Amino acid sequence: MDSRRNILIRLEGLPEEEGHLRLSEFLKALEEWKKILHQFDQMESPGGRPEVYYRVVNLSHSSPATIELEPVALPRREKKLPKNQALPTYKPPKVENRPRRLMSELRSIKDKAGVSDEVDPQVLVSLKAVAPSSSNGIARSSVIYGDTQLDLDQQFSSNVSKLINSELVSHGTLDGQLEALNVHGSGPYSCYVYPPIGPKKIRCTFNLLFRKKILELADKYVRISGFMHYREKSDFPYMMELSEIEELHPSSVVKFSTLVGSPESFIDGTSPHDIDDDW
User: How many structural domains is the chain composed of?
Assistant: First the structure.
């Protein structure tokens, strides 16, 4: 085990609890961190599928409580192929890319530089949930990777809140290849569309009515219409709520730049020029 690639999460409770965390608060924080790490794994995976899991290799309750997590590559899933077809060359995931990307995005938030378009809004909600607050019983919170320690302090929490509240929405259309489906259980359901230009991929959410259609169109070129979610000062959406979908021939795929929603048509009349540039 190479401990240099492990992630350390430190949590300290409120003074009135003598620096300890209540059991419910501790478990809630771990659940939020699980969501965060899972999303960063998907962001670094070429197909958006989970490739890494984390195992607890050390626990310490000396103030503050510290959890050490080791990223481990998931076992390779063997696919059944025709006898005359060879398995593709297996490329094990670079597990160290996950914590590096995590630290990069956390640093960007702390420095008020925003986040990349790939960061899901639920990640921001989870980061807000693990930052210090009297409501979650956390007085101090930090993440350590290698020689770098980032404190998720009150300023960090405030910056996350600004990112959550600065979202803009517009109706538009998107062409690309449909991959990385999440259609299990009762939802929420999602997939990724890989446009020919612009962002590497865009996450799309959809309801049960589209589940069968999405499964039929997996790995095919599609045109999707719906509400596009933008972050402040971003030219491309990071997420889309699907309302229509149709199959396209690859030669019919239209460049993303000609299909994005009109900036003047943001929901509730908000214009990009009306946004405060303080951020």
Answer: 2
